[in-house]
Amino acid sequence: MKQPNARNRQNAKRRTTLTLPSQSLATAARIARARHVNLSTVIAEAIDEGLRTKLAAARAGQVVESYRRAFSGFSDEEMLLLDGIILDERAK
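Above: the chain sequence. Below: its structure as tokens.
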């Protein structure tokens, strides 16, 4: 049997049944009608966008946590020096 390539996997579709809030479904149907596309297209785009947003938020949280771990051993004064803040007054 032939293995699907990356492009085919990316465009692969699978039929499933979802239970959606009535208001969300009605909104998606209005968007589909206005854009002259089918409801599945609108739902798929909404899910894709939502998942991308959630993944981006998770990555941002990981970056902040990594930063926190990396700099947790520094004192406040050391952090100021790392940030480029000069503490002595010789620059007058």
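The first helix runs from residue 6 to 11.
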